[in-house]
């Protein structure tokens, strides 16, 4: 049984961009990649901190990778793999997403 939470404005999220949302006190990273909405828990596998600390941005300067602003780890936005940084090879945890009538929902167990 899942609790269903609407992820607002995913239709307006530009391709390749990412944003932060909070649902039930948990923080998530929402990104649109190749037209698909992908959601990760906003917890760096290195020290279990949110990727964005003082910065609102969750992307690197070029906007190509999700970036942990604590120690600079970069993650593929497509599958959450850390490609450089202290947790290289580990992954951001994907959240379950569902689509219903054109709206995107976060499904929490
Ligand atoms: S906590 Fe993210 S790289 Fe260290």
What do you see in this structure?
InterPro entries: Rieske_2Fe-2S (IPR017941), Rieske_2Fe-2S_sf (IPR036922). Pfam families: Rieske (PF00355). By secondary structure, the protein is an all-beta fold. The chain has a single domain, classed as Rieske Iron-sulfur Protein. It is built from no helices and nine strands. The strands form three sheets. The chain has a three-stranded antiparallel sheet, with no helix packed on it. The protein starts with a strand and ends with a strand. FE2/S2 (inorganic) cluster (FES) binds near residues 44, 70, 73 and 85.
Measured distance between first and last alpha carbons: 6 Å
| CATH class call | Mainly Beta
Bound molecules: FE2/S2 (inorganic) cluster
Give the neighbour order of strands across the main sheet: 1-9-8
Domain Rieske: 13-106
Keywords: 2Fe-2S, Iron, Iron-sulfur, Metal-binding
InterPro entries: Rieske_2Fe-2S, Rieske_2Fe-2S_sf
Protein name: Rieske 2Fe-2S domain-containing protein
Give the helix/strand layout.
Elements: E1 3-6, E2 18-23, E3 26-33, E4 36-41, E5 66-67, E6 74-75, E7 82-84, E8 96-100, E9 103-108
Antiparallel strand pairs: 1-9, 2-3, 3-4, 5-6, 6-7, 8-9
This protein binds FE2/S2 (inorganic) cluster (FES).
Protein name: Rieske 2Fe-2S domain-containing protein
Keywords: 2Fe-2S, Iron, Iron-sulfur, Metal-binding
InterPro entries: Rieske_2Fe-2S, Rieske_2Fe-2S_sf
């Amino acid at each position: 049984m899942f609790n269903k939470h609407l992820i607002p404005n995913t239709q307006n999220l530009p391709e390749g961009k990412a944003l932060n949302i909070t649902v039930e006190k948990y923080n998530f990273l929402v990104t649109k990649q190749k037209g698909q909405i992908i959601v990760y828990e906003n917890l760096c596998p290195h020290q279990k901190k949110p990727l964005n600390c003082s910065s609102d941005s969750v992307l690197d300067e070029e906007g190509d990778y999700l970036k942990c602003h604590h120690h600079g780890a970069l993650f593929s936005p497509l599958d959450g793999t850390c490609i450089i940084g202290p947790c290289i090879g580990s992954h951001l945890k994907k959240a379950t997403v569902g689509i219903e009538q054109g709206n995107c929902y976060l499904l929490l167990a």
